[in-house]
Amino acid sequence: MGLISEVLLLPLAPARGSAWAIRQVLNEAERIYYDPGTVRAELARLEEQLEAGEITEEEFDRQEDELLDRLEIATRTSAGLGNGTAP
Given pLDDT bands bounded at 50, 70 and 90, which one contains residue 53? Predict the structure, then answer.
């Protein structure tokens, strides 16, 4: 870009910086969400809730399926086999 373009687009710099910061936060949130260690910890907590009687068997099954799907996506992504549904 030329100098004139830079000067004309200068008022948009805060918006571009904000967009970059938002993308960084979203990327980090997705990384944590799909982290296999995080998913395994959530599975362990879920099992503890079931054993303590805090959730029903049906709720356990539903949440376990969701967590196992996340774990599968994380495993595929880390193996380079991702289909674009995760980071």
Answer: very high
State how far the Cα of 77 lies from the Cα of 79, in Å rounded to an integer: 5
Spatial contact of 42 and 17, defined as CB atoms under 8 Å apart = no
Those residues with Cβ within 8 angstroms of residue 78's Cβ, 6 or more apart along the chain or in another chain = 36
Q: Model-level pTM greater than 0.70?
A: no
Residue 39 vs residues 6, 18, 44, 61: alpha-carbon distances, Å: 45, 30, 9, 15
CA distance 64 to 43: 7
